[in-house]
Each structure stands twice: as structure tokens, then as C-alpha cells.
What we know:
Blueprint: H1 4-16, H2 19-26, H3 30-44, E1 49-52, E2 55-58, H4 60-84, E3 92-98, H5 103-117, E4 121-127, H6 130-138, E5 144-149, E6 156-171, E7 192-193, H7 200-209, E8 217-218, H8 225-233, E9 239-242, H9 246-249, E10 255-258, E11 266-274, H10 280-297
Parallel strand pairs: 3-4, 3-5, 7-8
Antiparallel strand pairs: 1-2, 5-11, 6-9, 6-10, 6-11
Amino acid sequence: MVSLKQLKYFDAVARSGHFGKAAAHCAISQPALSMQVQELERSLGVQLLERGRNGVILTEGGREIAQRAARVLADVRDIVDAARRQGDVLSGPLALGVIPSLAPYILPRLLPKIRDGFPDLDLHIRETQTQSLVGELVDGELDLLLLALPVEHPDVETVRLFDDRFLLAMATAHRMSDDVRATPDLLEGDKLLLLEEGHCMRDQALAFCNLQRVENINTFGASSLSTLVQMVANGLGMTLLPEIAVPLETRHGDIHLMRFADPEPQRVIGLAWRKSSPRKRHFVELGQMITDAASTAAR
């Protein structure tokens, strides 16, 4: 018979690619972990791993079993969650993933509200890009995501929270009349500074601007909006700045912002969780708290 312990240990090896690292993660000796994984292979009648001097790699059959094991372990965690969350208040461990273009602007307002509203909640924050967050959610490493929608995955459920409009940010030396509204054509006369590959904001900006000339786009390794704003302030180009980031990123007064002509570009911010999660009602309640925090953060 296959045991959850065997699946857990195999999952750890599959993620780390190394028996020693997996054993340390699971707080077990390496020989004991290796024995459990070998027993799993014997039970299934399939070689799951190719063992080498520098670590291990998954066989073709091992890759499929690893995906299924991750889903099984996520479902088991949801079962435990369901047993624990019979009360009316969100409590216990909660792993929340947030995209980098939201975390610095909403968390300072949100975390005190969570602390006061859910005193028994053990919150853990993970900040990284959307693709990684969704993968970790599906695998059960995260419980809830705060990010830009949509999220296209059959095992994920979402709820829309609020719209976050984009503004055009330029150096004050290039200031235009406050009566002028920005258009995508305006961007073709200057460098458009964007976050590096992998950030959803980059894709949203490109879709809106529909730039045909590649030389107008500069993504020279910028991984934060703060870096982009500093580049803009020093005359290196323009960028699109989400409204929620405006109070923090323009506090030094060296950036001029322009509203776009209708329809204004925007992103939809929402929450995402596994469909199997028993905490949907609590997540929706938390979503209202996030919306309230966002409204104050944008002022």
C-alpha cells in the first residue's frame, strides 16, 4: 500500500532534486527518507527517480506521479483545514501569496487590519510573480493569492475585489497641461520603461500600448516599480504606474502623472484559491477587508 508519508517524502525529493535537501526539509535522516522512496517505487512497480552523483532527476513516469502526489497532498491539507475551520472566524495557518506590484502598497494598510480582525490567524506572506504563485497554490504550498486577474487554471477559483487604474508617469521636466489626457500614441515618442519578463504588469502594459516598435520598450532588468519610478524621475523614459502605488512612489514630488483618455487602462485585482479549499467563505470576508485597505492606500 502507498502511504501519505511516502508521497510526502517523494514530493520533497521531486521538488528539491536532492535526497539530502529533501531529508532536511522533512526533518528526517537521509537513509530513512531514501528507504521510504524506494518502498514507494516497489509498491508502484515504477522507477520514479534517476539517481546520480549530483542529485536526482525524475523519470518520465516519476514526473506524472509527482504531479499527482502534489495534488493528493494538497487535498489532504484541505481535509485537515476543513476539520480545523469549523468556527466562524478565520484562524490557524494561512499562506498568502502576493504579486510584487501590490505587496508594498497594500500590505502596510492590510496587515494591521488582519491582526486586529483575526487575532488567531497565523499569517505567512510569500511575494513573487504570478506564475510561481499559481503553481504553489495548486500544489498546496499556498492557501490564497492576491494578484491581478484573470487566473486561468481549472483547479482555481477567483473573486474580483477592485479595479486599479494605470496612469502615465513622466519626469516633471516633461510636464504637460493637466487638461491633456494620455493616449498610447504619446508613448511612441519616448522610451516605455517596463518591469522585466515574468511580471504580469508588463504584459498588461504591452497589451494596452500595442507598441509596434520594439526599440521603444526598455526592460533593463527592473524588478520593482520603485526602480522604474527612479528611472522616470531622471529622464530615462516613461512608465505606467498603477493607481494604488501612486501615494508611495510619488511622495518625493519629482514625477508628473497623466490620466489616460477613456477607456482608461486598468487591471482587475482579486483573490484566488483552490476550488477544494473549505475556507471560501472566510476568503471572501478577507477580500472585503483587502478592498477597504486598498481604498485607503490609494488616497
